[in-house]
Write a structure and sequence with these properties.
alpha+beta, two-stranded antiparallel sheet, 4 strands, 11% strand
């Protein structure tokens, strides 16, 4: 089964993070508690995401059917495949960021 790398730019702007409150997160049993420009100040209304332009690009499929049987158990093969996926996504993200004009338009 091939791996399809997907790069997304813009999703990070729907809730711009100002700070984290680790003590509150621990008390609520959450991994983190975000402080955004609107949350928690506006209560539930602050959970409405800001409008932002998203750019989504699907990369070329990375074939895995050519790998030998048991490749998933070989740390070096797994490292090489994950490195290839990571590099593909990172280069695509740089290209998408260069073509983006504005966060919101």
């Amino acid at each position: 089964m091939p791996i399809i790398p997907v790069s997304i730019v813009g999703s990070e702007e729907i809730y711009p993070l100002i700070a984290r409150a680790p003590a509150v997160a621990r008390a609520l049993g959450l991994p983190y508690f975000p402080i955004t420009p609107l949350f928690p100040w506006l209560g539930p209304l602050g959970l409405i995401p800001l409008p932002s332009k998203w750019l989504i690009q699907f990369g070329e499929a990375i074939a895995t059917d050519e790998l030998p049987p048991g490749a998933a158990d070989d740390p070096m093969i797994v490292f090489n495949v994950t490195d290839q996926v990571r590099e593909t996504i990172q280069h695509t993200l740089y290209a998408l960021l260069m073509q983006r004009r504005s966060v919101f338009f």
